[in-house]
Amino acid sequence: MSDIRVLVVEDEPIASAAHAAYVQRLDGFSLAGTAPDGQSALRLLAEFSAAGNPVELVLLDMNLPDLHGLDIARRMRSSGLFADIIAITAVRELNIVRSAVAIGVVQYLIKPFTYATFAEKLTNYRLFREQLASSDDGKNKTGASQSDVDQAFASLRTPSELQLPKGLSVSTLDAVKDFLRKEDAAVSASEVMDELGMSRVTARRYLEYLADAGSVSRAPRYGAPGRPENEYRWTRA
Amino acid sequence: MSDIRVLVVEDEPIASAAHAAYVQRLDGFSLAGTAPDGQSALRLLAEFSAAGNPVELVLLDMNLPDLHGLDIARRMRSSGLFADIIAITAVRELNIVRSAVAIGVVQYLIKPFTYATFAEKLTNYRLFREQLASSDDGKNKTGASQSDVDQAFASLRTPSELQLPKGLSVSTLDAVKDFLRKEDAAVSASEVMDELGMSRVTARRYLEYLADAGSVSRAPRYGAPGRPENEYRWTRA
DNA sequence: ACCGTTGCGTTCATATTGGTCATGAAAGGT
DNA sequence: ACCTTTCATGACCAATATGAACGCAACGGT
Hints:
Chain A is an alpha/beta fold and about 240 residues long. Chain A has helices at about 15-25, 40-50, 70-80, 95-105, 115-135, 145-155, 170-180, 190-195, 200-215, and strands at about 5-10, 30-35, 55-60, 85-90, 105-110, 185-190, 215-220, 230-235.
């Protein structure tokens, strides 16, 4: 799959350069350009679109000298530019989140943010696109089902793998992830317990977390007597 | 908090009435009206908006006689109508999901769906609104943080578990439902057993549940020796 | 018409696992 | 050194698919 073309819209030069660098540093994305204000952003978007090389994602700062981010989004939609938008905003103006969602903002970044947070949001977006593409173009001629769409939307949601929930540790999580990646087939909690020497409760907790985060898929294993055993399979590239 | 005003846009009278009934049955929502095509939908939205009583959520069918759902959404945005949209579509046109997201579709429902699915999506939307309102208006003068926004987005996009009778599991039910939707012809319990690898008893239990819930029809299949076999067919619109 | 045959519907006990709680050990801060 | 916080564990109860056993309804040959 080719890279997702990104336009960075940000008036402050230092922040703009930082965002641009972030994009180039991230796999699966390529920088289409940068714009310091709303007018030039709209012009650039229109030019790329006319050249048959449209921008697919806009990192849009809400505070710009000439236009507010919401206005830019509105004008984009009015003129038939349907690039997805990740909004970047300062802490105070949270009351515009709802309007932003209605215009098609897919993610929301609050300044100041770290590279890790940035990478998480963009990666979620990429996973969303990939899941949609695979359930659509794939061999599944019968069409995708509600659960497929739900799962795609779920990967757009943040699996805060940066900030682990209480009770989980990084090293244990890495061990479980490594084991899952190594195994091609689906594994059960008991198998993880045996292989890694941890308790079943612990193994299950980490597997469950990974399932919620979207990194692994979870399905019951039928055929044997007893309560069905969940089996987990690594899905994330 | 007052109810969320909903407009139902759907050309088929039976489906329209069903969706309207669903809305009225659901806590926290009230029906603002119904529209059978795109033109009247846009007119109604404009009228409500002018009367200072705007619609906040639109249940928008994608297949309408005059305009495609995406066009309606686009015109809404162009004319300054920023109601949120839950898209309703048939299985085939999944390729428009991405465009839909860009115009601000917050949820996606695939026909045919059950009331439970419908209620889940709308409830998620309501939770999203409430979380946003509480973290904004609340005492938290320092403003909301990234995690607040993340949490709100999460409740919009996380499939919430709906209540099932004891003895049934969500994933198994999903598997059976997906299989039934994929098969156009009526299927027997034995066929479900073979295809999904579960036992005959289990398959039958889930099929019976779906039949009781009204999602599938049940009829005996004659012609072969032995006790007649029930066959199940997906019917829910 | 009758009756054996056939295969599914139905019920129940059983086998395992999922989930939760409180406990214990280790790590980190004061 | 003491207290607080964090994470893994063991033991418990609840949940859920399975298999076997029995009953039932239509078919088909006599």
